[in-house]
């Protein structure tokens, strides 16, 4: 993956109120950051077109003020944290890994990323304490950009309105971005992306995101069935990613050496071979060597067909060949 220019830090709030910093993509000693940054704040899962507008507003303010630009986000996602703490099962729902988020911020031109570790200590802060201790005293922000529905502080006690009021009292300016829609009125939100993926509409998901939904992971060894029938696959675990609709997709795969190759991906339980667990298997066109233990990233481009059970391996092989040809035709 490409080297990130953005400096990213994981920040952990200690019980006594200190903020411990760990550099994520810079040398360990490089944990200092400038004061007076203009920051966008939010969960930003997906960094979709609506999120991008919030972040662009922060960058524009930085340019006006001659200040550094930044993003303040949270990890793990607050929703996952609260479900886990309540002892409830967490259905995978993330659209991005933290690494993908930071790269997306970097591509937008953000200079600094402050990732707040969302844990018991941080979640217990009132909205007032979060604004005072984190945003003002520790990060020393000069401007904050947020979405209209941003909530923060214990039990979601803070809102975009209270953040604006706090800024007026503490000396930082605030810009609130209204709900963003596309030219047809379709809401640009993480929920819209999730709904599209669960319906198998990869193109709508990509439209809302402003780029294809991408799944990154380490290639692991499977049961070699694909290799046996002439279509070797690269298998990755989806982990916390939201599961798209089962089926076969036209995809594009980025390899660890920087190459980008067309591909076709099956996601499902492989009923023809008696599979019991989910597999995300990608057949990469033109790949002539093993890539086990390497990180790849697979873009979801187009849904070809639902998962189905075939009467034989031969019938499965013939359908995979047709899927591969359809994917190649998609690329022209």
3D structure, described in words:
The chain is of the alpha/beta class. It has helices at residues 49-65, 78-85, 98-108, 120-123, 127-138, 160-170, 190-198, 202-209, 225-228, 313-330, and strands at 7-13, 19-23, 38-41, 69-75, 112-117, 143-147, 151-152, 158-159, 173-177, 213-218, 234-236, 247-254, 260-268, 279-284, 295-305. Strands 2-1-5-4-3-6-9 form a seven-stranded mixed sheet, with helices on both faces. A six-stranded antiparallel sheet has the order 10-15-12-13-14-11. It has a two-stranded antiparallel ribbon with strand order 7-8. The protein starts with 6 loop residues before the first strand and ends with a helix. The model has no long low-confidence stretch (mean pLDDT 93).
Largest sheet: 7 strands, mixed
Strand content: 25-35%
Give the averaged pLDDT, no decimals. Answer: 93
Could you say which overall geometry the principal axes of the C-alpha atoms support?
Answer: elongated
**Helical content band:** 25-40%
Tell me the series of helices and strands, N- to C-terminal.
Answer: EEEHEHHEHHEEEHEHHEHEEEEEH
* Secondary structure category: alpha/beta
What's the number of helices? Answer: 10
Detail the poorly predicted runs.
none
End-to-end CA span: 26 Å
Rg, Cα atoms, Å: 22 Å
- Give, in spatial order, the strands making up the sheet with the most strands: 2-1-5-4-3-6-9
- Total number of β-strand segments? 15
């Amino acid at each position: 993956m490409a080297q990130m220019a953005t400096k990213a830090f994981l920040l952990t709030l200690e019980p006594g109120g200190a903020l411990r910093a760990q550099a994520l993509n810079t040398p360990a000693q490089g944990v200092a950051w400038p004061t007076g940054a203009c920051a966008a704040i939010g969960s930003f899962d997906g960094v979709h077109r609506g999120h991008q507008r919030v972040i662009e507003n922060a960058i524009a303010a930085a340019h006006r003020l001659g200040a550094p630009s930044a993003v303040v986000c949270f990890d793990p996602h607050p929703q996952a944290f609260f479900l886990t703490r309540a002892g409830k099962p967490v259905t995978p729902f993330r659209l991005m890994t933290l690494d993908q988020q930071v790269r997306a911020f970097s591509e937008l031109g953000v200079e600094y990323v402050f990732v707040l570790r969302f844990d018991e200590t941080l979640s217990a802060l009132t909205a007032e304490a979060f604004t005072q201790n984190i945003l003002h005293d520790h990060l020393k922000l000069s401007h904050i950009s947020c979405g209209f529905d941003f909530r923060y502080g214990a039990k979601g006690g803070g809102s975009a309105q209270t953040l604006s009021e706090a800024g007026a009292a503490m000396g930082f300016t605030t810009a609130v971005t209204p709900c963003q829609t596309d030219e047809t009125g379709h809401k640009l939100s993480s929920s819209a992306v999730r709904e599209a993926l669960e319906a198998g509409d990869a193109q709508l998901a990509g439209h809302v995101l402003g780029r294809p939904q991408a799944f990154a992971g380490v290639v692991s060894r499977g049961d070699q069935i694909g290799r046996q029938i002439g279509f070797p696959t690269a298998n990755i675990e989806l982990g916390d990613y939201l599961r798209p609709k089962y089926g076969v997709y036209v995809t594009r795969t980025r390899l660890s050496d920087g190459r980008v190759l067309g591909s076709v991906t099956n996601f499902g339980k492989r009923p023809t071979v008696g599979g019991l667990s989910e597999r995300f298997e990608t057949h990469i066109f033109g790949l002539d060597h093993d890539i086990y233990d390497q990180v790849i990233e697979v873009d979801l481009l187009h849904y070809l067909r639902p998962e189905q059970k075939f009467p034989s391996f031969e019938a499965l092989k013939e359908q995979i060949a047709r899927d591969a040809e359809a994917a190649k035709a998609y690329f022209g």
